[in-house]
Amino acid sequence: MRTAKDFFRPLAVGAPQPPTEIPARPSRAIHFFDPSNAKMAAKIPAMVGTVDVLLGNLEDAIKADNKVAAREGLVRIAQETDFGPTQLWTRINSLDSPWVLDDLTTLVPAIGDKLDVIMVPKVQGAEDIHYVDRLLAQLEAKAGITTPILVHAILETARGVANIEEICGASPRMQGLSLGPADLAADRRMKTTRVGGGHPGYLVRQDPASSDQADIEAPRATYQQDLWHYTIARMVDACAMHGIYPYYGPFGDIADVVACEDQFRNAFLLGCVGTWSLHPKQIAIANRVFSPSVADIRHARRVVAAMGDGTGAVMLDGKMEDDASLKQCLVMVRLAEELAAIDPELKQQYDAIEVD
Ligand code: GLV
Ligand code: MG
């Protein structure tokens, strides 16, 4: 057992003080790039400021032959680029892979002062976070890093889902969780073959008009269900409980921008703060979906104004508003303020809202 006192002590002599709070930095889109792909890498400097997070991916989707080139490419890009307001994250290889030790021992000394968050894939339990936590502290101490690098776990194994609360609480460095629907589906032996999103076979059907065979066989409305609802809901609760942030993950059907937007919006409404982007066109979708709409902010500000000192109840447009609906509106208003601080276009839209 680690006592409350020990929890915030550095895990290595000379390592920075672990954070007592994880700042709510806008991270609507975490845009993945392959640092071993010269064409993609060349575009990174111009993307600074256009997306909340740029993530150099070292894990899946990078061929084994390109692992070293990706690691070295990320070091080069990070050293040569001024990221300004954009966060730099990386996804390291999994903890049982032959590459992860070199990933960490190369990246931390070379670019540890520029890396905001390290995403750890296929996390199974608190022991995985403890390992990364101690190793990062040792490497930070050796490299003289003064701001602790945060850790983000991908939830993509059944054991990881079962251990979700202990993963979120395993280290003060824990920044958040992402859903890894592709690996999770495989690990759970789900019968899907996609990267995220829904499945037309996962549905409920309207009752038949009667139990006659003709009515049973007659066309009936069907409603597709969300395969990821359960897992995202668990992520949201575990993250909120620990003061860290939940994210949807990859949506592999790049062409289907409409279903992608739906999946992202479900995650946003349930409490996620952002998602992955696998293609530049998903950045715009994520920025739109994970920013409260002008209509929502207008309504939220009206409720805040009408509720005065925040207690009691008022009627607004025929609907009862009280302390609890005010709290929901404040979540939206605060998010809008955080986003307006880094997104001038959004700030203009929110500033132009008139509350009657
Ligand atoms: C992401 O890594 C996934 O497995 O979906
Ligand atoms: Mg995965």
Automatic annotation (TrEMBL):
Cross-referenced SUPFAM superfamilies: Phosphoenolpyruvate/pyruvate domain (SSF51621)
Secretion signal span: none
HpcH/HpaI aldolase/citrate lyase domain mapped to chain residues: 30-194
Organism: freshwater metagenome
Protein known as: Unannotated protein
Cofactor(s) listed in the protein's UniProt record: Mg(2+)
GO molecular-function terms, A-Z: catalytic activity; magnesium ion binding
Keyword entries, A-Z: Magnesium, Metal-binding
Gene Ontology terms: biological process: oxaloacetate metabolic process
